Amino acid sequence: MARVVKWALPFVLALGFPFVGQEGYFTHLAITILIFSILASSLNLLMGYTGLVSIAHGAFYGIGAYTSGILVLRHGVPFWAAIVIATAFAGIVALGIGPPSFRTRGIYYIIVTIAFQLIASEIFDNWYSMTGGGLGLKGIPRPEPISLPFLPALGFQSKFVYYYLVLAVAAAVHYGIWRIIRSPLGIALMAIRDNETKALMMGLSPLRYKIGVFVFASALAGLAGSLYAHYLEYAHPDLFSFFVSVDVFLMVMLGGAGTLYGPPLGVLILEMLREVLHEFVALRLLLYGLLLIVIIVFLPEGLPRPLARWTRRLVTPRLLPGSAP
To answer: pTM of this prediction?
Structure first.
């Protein structure tokens, strides 16, 4: 029963969230958090469960956004088909760069992911005929209305309805990641993370598993990008830059890599910090840098685990020497 409450309560609260407070501001914030939770959880599948650090997630995020936007805006492809194509295309691009990337190790692999992110950012910013360059891709439409049995057509022009679309996709993605982690595939990924040599001796193929999870995580990033572009009705290179990849990395580290609840919690904390420091851009970047240093040096497990330990120490009564427990 406790497990049911643990999983059902957040979902029930999420269902009722748009009815609380100002629809415009809070609903926009909730949509952004849900989309970034998809992005962070997909990166966590790489970092936390496979041991692969990637600073290119913003690139795949942008690939999904631009692919979906271009298909719908310029070629008349329905949103429901475009989002599938965009997700698949992000995965295909990852399949192209994955095998050569995994031939390198350690810092060299991270440099490869950074290089790909910078290349993708340059393409987004300078391919004017395709992406609109620095002007961005404007006028990306919201999803078409869908017909429901015995009910009027459901449109997605309002933030209120779009929120529930994003919530449904986010819930499906998190459930799918949970099932993967609890499956033999998840055990194999964690074995590769803990000791790649032993995993190889056990008959696993680390390269094949790495490529597979890299493609899957990148496809999920493309899915998040498609949802975001159609929500904003706009795509711009700054939304998918190197700093976005760093933000997502920070979200995973802050919430705790290798945990299911960590990435969404990291997204929530960082988005709250971003909203508080919205008008102080220079100060926000400084705090982000300091936060990244603090997490890597002092909180490598993320914030929740040490916080839980400190809380238990405060709550648990301290016994005097020689006293009975």
So the answer is: 0.87
